[in-house]
Amino acid sequence: MNGQFAFNLLDLIGTFVFAISGATAARQRDLDLFGILAIAFITACGGGIFRDLCIGAIPPAGLADWRYLALAMGAALLTIGAYPLVQKLQQPVLLFDAAGLGLFAVSGAQKALHFGHNAEVAIMLGMITAVGGGMARDVLLNRVAVVLRKEIYAAAALLGAALAVTGAHYQWPAATSTWLPILACFSLRYLSLRYHWNLPRFRHDPRDKQEAPE
After folding, report:
1. Kind and range of the H or E run holding 180
2. Of 97, 177, 169, which Cα lies nearest the Cα of 133?
3. Sequence ranges of the domains in the chain
4. From the CB of residue 78, how many other CB atoms can be counted at a distance below 10 Å?
5. How far is it, in rounded angstroms, from Cα 82 to Cα 79?
6. pLDDT tens per residue across span 148-181
7. Cystine design at 102: which of 133, 156, 159, 182 (Cβ 3.0–4.6 Å)?
8. What confidence tens digit (pLDDT) does each residue in 91-150 have?
């Protein structure tokens, strides 16, 4: 199995897992069938579609490649049909989610570089590729996005994208510039979940009172 095939395979696996997380969240909010399918697709492909629109890769891969839609719909239907089992698989899903986060962060950064954008744009779009779908999901479900909470999520994606861009700049071997950033992102996300690492969070001071408008 060559490296490109393995990368594409993991990319599709990440799409499948992210779709499960989106469908699970939609199911918890008691959405109907269309709502669950839509949230699953947006979670899995939303970040990549936004990236492709920004860099001029038209039509976006998430819309042009039928495999992304098929995997998202399959994951949503699986979640609906086996919802109690999916709930019991929360930890394995989080594990694959961490792998998908690193994969999308790196692939997003590399695609932006391939289309001629600079390092700063590539890093930001790599992070957006990884977390954009989840943010869209949370906005549509009317809840605070997970990337804005205390968990180390977007920071892990940012690390993976930055390492991918660094590897491309210094011309690291292809395997190193791809798999090392993925491993770094995965490790940071997984260890933060395992050991409950969080970014600083500031408690609300009850003395701070917002003045009511007159």
Report:
1. helix 174-195
2. 97
3. 3-195
4. 17
5. 5
6. 776 788 999 999 999 999 999 998 887 888 889 9
7. 182
8. 666 777 788 888 899 988 988 998 889 999 999 999 999 999 888 988 999 888 777 776
